[in-house]
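To assess whether the prediction recovers the assembly geometry, we first specified each molecular entity separately, as shown.
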Amino acid sequence: NAGVTQTPKFRILKIGQSMTLQCTQDMNHNYMYWYRQDPGMGLKLIYYSVGAGITDKGEVPNGYNVSRSTTEDFPLRLELAAPSQTSVYFCASSYSRVFTDTQYFGPGTRLTVL
Amino acid sequence: KQEVTQIPAALSVPEGENLVLNCSFTDSAIYNLQWFRQDPGKGLTSLLLIQSSQREQTSGRLNASLDKSSGRSTLYIAASQPGDSATYLCAPLLDAGNMLTFGGGTRLMVKP
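The predicted structure of the complete assembly is given in tokenized form:
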């Protein structure tokens, strides 16, 4: 059981370039999330999705876009990369937000923008 | 806006000690609160999820308590081991939203 997988693990971008971070989960979870974690800090939510075709902004959405065409996949798009987007990006999923559910996290993508 | 603070930011202890990690949050209207563990260069692993109606949850040597009205949670680690060395993050979920708000974490080092 793979859980939540993310690709790539590492990436270096030049300012102004764009890229897509991939996230896939095989647990048939409805909810998926993208977080970023800056050094020494907690995680901040970028975008989340409550099901295929439905996305919503989190705390820090500027500079990012998402789509959710299938239950399994939730890619994060960076347009016009900036040094402020240097961070570690985590994708997570959960079956729902109610009661006993917990979020399962991928291993992260470490992105550097130079 | 929910603000989450974790104290201490870092902790170094000898093996065998009992530990208390603290988490405080400003908005007490939470649905539940999770404690996570993060190993260096890795993703997060959920340790304990405590519902707003509960006072505590236990898993092995870990015990999490929640005082919703005062906006506090503690994670108690009994008989610490070097394998417990990691960063511990708490994250409450607000009633009115879908977002976990994370604290900055407590970086724990347990020395043999």
